[in-house]
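Late entry, evening session. Most of the bench is empty. Finally got around to the prediction I had been postponing all week. Sequence below, unchanged from the version circulated by S.P.
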Amino acid sequence: MPTDKTAPLGIPVSLALDVDDVAMIRVLGVHDRVLAEVEREFPDLTIHARGNRITIEGDRSRAEEAMSVVEELISLAKTGVQLSNSEVVQTARIARESDHEASRVLGQPIVSRGGRTIRPKTLGQARYVESIDHNTIVFGIGPAGTGKTYLAMAKAVAALERKEVDRIILTRPAVEAGERLGFLPGTLSEKIDPYLRPLFDALHEMMNPELVPKLLASGTVEVAPLAYMRGRTLNNSFIVLDEAQNTTPEQMKMFLTRLGFDSKMVITGDITQIDVPGGHSGLRKVVDILEGIDGISFQRLGADDIVRHKLVSDIVDAYAKYDESKGTK
């Protein structure tokens, strides 16, 4: 347990935490990289690791905050999370901005394969995943890199594995399905494949690659353009619509009315990346039409939820500020 926490605020303290061997190895990381990331998050503190003891010295309130981050990292490690810089950054952010426990937020597995576990990595992602559990239709809206499609697909795979649904349907609009697509060589299937390839790639990461062709052949998993949804009623299914910002309002209405019994829908998109001709996005319009209806949830992810390189968050923030200064949406 941490020691020396009785000094008044503003007075330097020295806090110490004894850690068992396995947890210490995980918290330190290769070449102490994990602990070094903690030091970068708290540059005003002095952090030492000696034997099985971690010592934090500096201002009391900051030292206590840093110690809570270390304790949460230990808890995360014990749940099997492979700690990286991302977990340190997000744990520190959760410690600063909410009363949630990072180990509870970030330590909830969705699906595992080959020793790799997919789980939320930010507070926003955790709320998004929780919303999928408690609603029939969920809209995940946010910039690239926030995990909105990847986590939705993971939830779909988990639901299929638990036999909560009979099939998974993954779809996205083929924006170029008009004139320009006709100039591409090959059959219709070959022309459409590039639009669906990201969904296939993610599917192979989450499921046994040898099993995927069998599931596709049997119809248990379907990956198809949005146009293929017309005229159908989708029962006992987990349906994911990706790149929904590129639907027209008519396509969005068509898709949503395919919902059948015992099914769940997740619609993902980024309203700052609209490619649909004329810019009339079905995703942008549906927010005004459906927000507030029971069973439908709109989850907005932002730059803080981006789990790619830190520069991606900075780029997204910079574009948002630029658009705001120009008065654009």
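Two things to note before I forget:
Confidence is low (pLDDT under 50) at residues 176-181.
The first strand starts at residue 12 and ends at 18.
Will write this up properly tomorrow.
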